TrEMBL record:
<feature type="signal peptide">
    <location>
        <begin position="1"/>
        <end position="33"/>
    </location>
</feature>
<dbReference type="Pfam" id="PF01915">
    <property type="entry name" value="Glyco_hydro_3_C"/>
</dbReference>
<dbReference type="GO" id="GO:0016798">
    <property type="term" value="F:hydrolase activity, acting on glycosyl bonds"/>
</dbReference>
<dbReference type="Pfam" id="PF00933">
    <property type="entry name" value="Glyco_hydro_3"/>
</dbReference>
<dbReference type="InterPro" id="IPR006311">
    <property type="entry name" value="TAT_signal"/>
</dbReference>
<dbReference type="InterPro" id="IPR001764">
    <property type="entry name" value="Glyco_hydro_3_N"/>
</dbReference>
<keyword id="KW-0732">Signal</keyword>
<feature type="domain" description="Glycoside hydrolase family 3 N-terminal">
    <location>
        <begin position="57"/>
        <end position="388"/>
    </location>
</feature>
<dbReference type="InterPro" id="IPR019800">
    <property type="entry name" value="Glyco_hydro_3_AS"/>
</dbReference>
<dbReference type="InterPro" id="IPR036881">
    <property type="entry name" value="Glyco_hydro_3_C_sf"/>
</dbReference>
<dbReference type="InterPro" id="IPR002772">
    <property type="entry name" value="Glyco_hydro_3_C"/>
</dbReference>
<dbReference type="InterPro" id="IPR051915">
    <property type="entry name" value="Cellulose_Degrad_GH3"/>
</dbReference>
<keyword id="KW-0326">Glycosidase</keyword>
<protein>
    <recommendedName>
        <fullName>beta-glucosidase</fullName>
        <ecNumber>3.2.1.21</ecNumber>
    </recommendedName>
</protein>
<keyword id="KW-0378">Hydrolase</keyword>
<feature type="domain" description="Glycoside hydrolase family 3 C-terminal">
    <location>
        <begin position="427"/>
        <end position="627"/>
    </location>
</feature>
<dbReference type="InterPro" id="IPR017853">
    <property type="entry name" value="GH"/>
</dbReference>
């Protein structure tokens, strides 16, 4: 194999072992393999799909529609071959034992060898949540979360961040990312607010350039990955208190709306994702839709919503790619497992993320088809869409990892782009008495745990699903960035160190990491700053002549009563691994240009509040952001 020249001695050995395990099956080629049109790259993709579908059994087709979690197959990789799995994924925090580029590539290539041991040698599609960089990999470039990128108003920057993310991801094996999220967040109490580019569908649509960054112009180029627009549709527009998932309050809840409003707000970014950006896959949401036209009280889960999945998305909008369910999403549908599978397949879902029940899914799907409850035509449509993506990715010709770009992972050039994204995302909300930019000659007092915590700075979906505080990734903290710009800096996390003699104070407040509904307000979370953060503001702003407050969080916090105590207030979002980018604007190396992608409420009770609402009276309106000039 051509790619083997790029492997180290250790990785060659790992791959050879994997291939050797599959050798008995690999030695038996498919019947008339030399004449198989699907193996001929000169044949158009449509012809290859048709040829391969005609050779497949029902069981082989069912296997292609199943996606298992890495943790479910790693101990018995023969399942990949036995079931003919179409895909394997790494859920948040599901990594190889050696969480290194080589460890990832060895793992994915080992699984791929098992897939190529099947009768028809259909390659595996490996999926991962590279949502703000290749964030499961320690050492990858970690970009700001989408909410911060929305604040930049820079579609080209979003495209470039996605391009780098794709390159770093593909160099370690995965060919598919479950990103970008093109949800429109309409209530910042939602724990996934930071996954959205903002509250205005026009802004979210503009930032869909990330899809091109991921996929490029040619998916067969091993610098690119298949993108996934998610979560179709309305997941950011659910009603607070409507969720029935565990203790969640709003995530996976119900979008109560009429069809016209739904199309204008929730559906619009997907139309552009399909028709302009040509996204390869779409992930339906956990949430439900309840149409007001027929009376409220009969919501339908998106996984079962044939009107929206098939009639609207596939037929009216013309989506030619495939739909992949979210993590065990069909388990939330009514009925037993057979009914759940039947309902979701007939509604239009093509691939099923069944992390720990892929064998059961395959058996059930085959039985439902044979019983006549799922049409064969629906199976052929689903599998054809999946195969089309695999052909477009060039996996039949180059199934193994191209490791030639692994050296660029976390490179200085990539981190420079992330640092620029951090700087451009900073939103200056208040700047009295020209408090900012700071001067390098000033004696600066820094307070707050978030000033020196890379894990808090990166937020959820970083190394693990929920993320974590502490030095979880390499990078620079905001404090380190400040120290690189000023010679006289005192740091006290709890503001207990003496403040006397300092010219300026910088208090860094904010949230600790969370992901999805775990972060919902009312599920152990609030929009109010912590008692420690409020105390730090009181101590520092009450004692130091010039006081600047930075908010490191995935959404606005309630600062209405605290704002008069500050000279300057900056929303820093979740900047990722390059905290030095925050310091770049604090000290005037770069100008403040960011603008709010969401409305900033006066109180938690004011949510939901969005631009265009009647009696709109926020603390800071959508689009607000003061500007500065770079210091000469």
């Amino acid at each position: 194999m051509a790619h083997s020249r790029l492997l180290t001695v250790g990785s060659r050995r790992s791959l050879l072992v994997a291939v050797a395990l599959a050798a008995p099956l690999l030695s038996v080629p498919p019947a008339r393999a030399e004449a198989a049109a699907y193996l001929d790259s000169r044949v158009p993709v449509a012809g290859r799909v048709k040829d391969l579908l005609g050779r497949m059994t029902l069981e082989e087709k069912a296997g292609q529609m199943a996606q298992a979690e890495r943790g479910a197959v790693d101990g018995d990789q023969g399942q990949i071959t036995a079931l003919g799995l179409g895909s394997v994924l790494s859920g948040g925090g599901s990594t190889p034992a050696a969480n290194t580029p080589e460890g990832w590539a060895d793992m994915v290539d080992g699984y791929q060898a098992r897939a190529l041991a099947t009768r028809l040698r259909i390659p595996l599609l490996y999926g991962v949540d590279s949502v703000h960089g290749h964030n499961n990999l320690v050492g990858a470039t970690v970009f700001p979360h989408n909410i911060a990128l929305g604040a930049t108003r820079d579609p080209r920057l979003v495209r470039e961040a996605a391009r780098i993310t794709a390159m770093e991801t593909r160099a370690t094996g995965p060919q598919w990312t479950f990103a970008p999220c093109v949800c429109v967040t309409r209530d910042v109490r939602w724990g996934r607010t930071y996954e959205s580019f903002g509250e205005d569908p026009r802004l979210v649509t503009a930032m869909g350039t990330g899809i091109e960054g991921f996929q490029g112009r040619n998916l067969a180029d091993t610098r690119h990955v298949l993108a996934t627009a998610k979560h179709y549709a309305g997941d950011g527009d659910t009603r607070f208190g409507s969720s029935t998932t565990g203790t969640y309050t709003i995530d996976q809840g119900v979008t109560v709306t009429d069809r016209r409003t739904f199309a204008r707000i929730d559906l619009a970014p997907y139309v552009a994702a399909v028709r302009e950006e040509r996204v390869g896959s779409i992930m339906p949401s956990f949430s439900s839709v309840d149409w007001t036209e027929d009376g409220v009280g009969n919501p339908v889960k998106m996984s079962a919503h044939k009107e929206l999945l098939t009639d609207v998305l596939k037929r009216r909008i013309g989506f030619p790619g495939f739909l992949v369910s979210d993590w065990e999403a069909i388990h939330q549908l009514p009925g037993d497992y057979a009914v759940q599978v039947r309902t979701a397949v007939n509604a239009g879902i093509d691939m099923f993320m069944e992390p720990y029940s892929a064998p059961q899914f395959v058996r059930t799907l085959v039985a439902e088809v044979r019983a006549g409850r799922i049409p064969t035509s629906r199976i052929d449509d689903a599998v054809g869409r999946i195969l089309r993506a695999k052909f477009q990715l060039g996996l039949f010709e180059r199934p193994y990892t191209d490791r030639s770009r692994a050296g660029s992972i976390g490179s200085a050039a990539h981190r420079a782009v992330a640092r620029r994204a951090v700087a451009e995302s900073q939103v200056l909300l208040k700047n009295d008495r020209r408090a900012l930019p700071l001067k390098p000659s000033q004696r600066i007092y820094v307070a707050g745990a978030n000033a020196d915590d890379l894990g808090n700075q990166a937020g959820g979906w970083t190394v693990t699903w929920q993320g974590g505080s502490g030095a979880t990734i390499p990078g620079t903290t905001i404090l380190q960035g400040i120290r690189r710009n000023a010679a006289d800096v005192t740091y006290s996390a709890d503001a207990s160190a003496p403040t006397a003699g300092h010219d300026a104070g910088v208090v860094v407040i904010g949230e600790t990491p969370y992901a999805e509904g775990v972060g919902d307000v009312g599920n152990g979370h609030t929009l109010e700053p912590s008692a420690a953060d409020r105390a730090n503001i009181d101590r520092v702003c009450g004692a130091v002549r010039t006081c600047v407050v930075l908010d490191v969080a995935g959404r606005p916090q309630i600062v209405t009563g605290l704002l008069p105590k500050m000279d300057a207030f900056v929303m820093s979002w979740l900047p990722g691994s390059e905290g030095a980018g925050v310091a770049d604007v604090l000290f005037g190396k770069r100008p403040f240009r960011g603008r709010l992608p969401v409305t900033w409420p006066r109180s938690e009770a004011q949510e939901p509040i969005n631009v265009g609402d009647e009696h709109y009276d926020p603390l800071f309106p959508y689009g607000h952001g003061l500007t500065t000039r770079p210091r000469s």
